[in-house]
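Exercise: predict the fold of this chain.
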Amino acid sequence: LGDIERNRGQLDAAKARFELKLEIDQKILGLTGENPEALRDLGISLRCLGFVEQSRGQLEAAKARFLRMLE
């Protein structure tokens, strides 16, 4: 849903969806440990949030999301 909202230009709604997904991914990571699937899902959420921030003109926030994705 976040991708659809981002494509429609509804960036605030997209950000909210991706932030919710990020929270879920962080909880799963905490419960399951650092396994490849959980880390991949976390990275995808951070990447999606980075693209939304970039589209909103929030380049420093986007950069922070992308750098966190690499950790």
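Check your answer against the key: The chain has four helices and no strands.
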